[in-house]
Write a structure and sequence with these properties.
Layout (H helix, E strand, L loop, with lengths): L2 H13 L13 E13 L4 E12 L5 E5 L4 E6 L3 E7 L2 E6 L7 E9 L5 E4 L4 E4 L16 E11 L3 E4 L2 E8 L2 E13 L5 E4 L2 E7 L2 E7 L4 H7 L3 H12 L7 E6 L5 E3 L2 E4 L3 H7 L5 H8 L8 E2 L6 H19 L1 H20 L16 H22 L1 H15 L3 E2 L1 H12 L4 H7 L2
Parallel strand pairs: 1-10, 16-17, 17-19, 20-21
Antiparallel strand pairs: 1-2, 2-7, 3-6, 4-7, 5-6, 8-9, 9-14, 10-13, 11-14, 12-13, 15-16, 18-19
Helix pairs in contact: 1-8, 3-5, 3-6, 5-6, 6-7, 6-8, 7-8, 8-9, 9-10
Amino acid sequence: MQPIILLLTSLYLFAAPYFCQTDQPANDLNVTSYHATIEPKIDRGYIDGSVTIRFSIDPHATSIALNSGGLQISNVTGDNVTGFEQKDHWVVIQLAARKESENIVQILYSGKPSRGLVFDPEAGEAYTVFSTSQWMVCNDAPDDRARFTLDLLIPSDKNCVASGELIKKTDQKDKTLYSWRQDYESPSYTYGFAIGNFHEYEEDHNGVTLKYYSKDYQPDELRDIFSNTRDMMDFFTQISGLDYVQSTYSQILMGDHYQEMSGFSVLKNSYGQLVQKDSTEMNLISHELAHQWWGNRITCKNWNHFWLNEGFATFLSAAYNERRFGREKYDSDIKSYFDVYQDIKNRGNDKSLIFEDWSNPTGDDRNLVYFKGAYVLHLLRQELGDAAFWKAIRSYSRKYAGKSVETIDFQRSVEESSGEDLDLFFNEWVY
C-alpha cells in the first residue's frame, strides 16, 4: 500500500466506532444550542460535566431522546421536564404536554469515557475523537446543527484548543476556566477540544488566525510542517466559492489519531516527522482542512450517505496535490484509490456508495466510502471536463453551505450546473 492509503486507512479505523449506530428512539428534535461545562480529570480518565440544551420540538411531544454514550446522568431539570430515564446509550427526558417554541433542559453528568475522549496521563494530554455523546449529552444526528459554547476547566499549567473562538480565561486558584463559543451552527459530531502543554506557532492569513500546536515540535518546526495551510485554504475557498467560515483554524500534532473538528484538527503526533522527511505528504493536512467545507459545513444527512463527507475530502486532497505538486502527483493518488477499490471489487465486495445500513460497516465498506468515493469524483471530472466539473463543485458547495444533503442533492445540483443528464453515470458508479 502506498503511504497515503495507509495514512487514510488509519484515519477511518480510528473513526469507525462512532458510526456504529444503535436504533434511535423516535425524535422530532431541533437543538439550537449547547452550553457545556466540563472538567476533565486527565490522571483518572474521568469527567464531570453539565450541559444546557436549547431546542424546539412539537408542542404536543411528551419526550425527547438524547445520546448519552456511557455517561451517568445524575439530574435533569427544566421548566417542562417531568422526569427522565437512562437506557443503553440514551437518556429519554419526559416533558409536559404543551411547550413554548424554545425549550431548555439542564443535564448533570459524569463518566469515564472508553472512547470519544482520549486521555494520556503520562503526557498530561486529553483530546476528543468523534463520539461527542461520550463526553457531552447531545443529539448525535448529523443533520441537527446547533451553536456551541464550552467552558473547559483545566489545570493552570496547561492550555487548550476547542471548537469556536476563545472569548475568556478565568483563573480559579490552580485551575483556569477557558470559555469557547461557536456562533456558527454545525453538527454535534464536529465539536471537540484538546488539552496539553503545547508549543505554538501563529500566523494570519486573510483575516483568519492559523495556529499550530504540539508538545514535541518547536514553533519553527510547526511553521514548516504546516507551511502549505495558507495555500490549501485559498484553494478550497476558490473551488467552493465560500470563504472559510470561522475566525481561527488550528492544527495539533498529538496522540495517535486523526480527527477533523469544527475549527481545528488533531493529527497523529508522528505525522509531523513524515512531513519533515517528505514535503509532498500533504494529504492528511489537506484532507482534514477540506472537511471544514465538505463534512462540517455541507454534511451528509445521515451516515448512509457518508461518502459525501469522506469521498469528497479524499478526492480534494488529491486535487490539492495537483495544484501544489503537479498532475503526476494527482494521478498517483487517484491510482492508489483505484487500486484499493479494484481489490475490493475483485473479491466481490463492491457496493453502492449509498449504504442501506451503516450500523456495522466492514473494513471494505469504509474503504469504499473513502477511496471508491474519491475515484468516482475523479471519473465525474473526466465525464464533465475540468471547466464544467469545477463549476459544478462550486455551485453545489454554495447551494448547500450550512445544510445537510443526500446523494440525490449532489447529483441534481451537478446536472443543473452542467446541463448534463447523469442518471447513467450515477446508476453505474454510485447507486
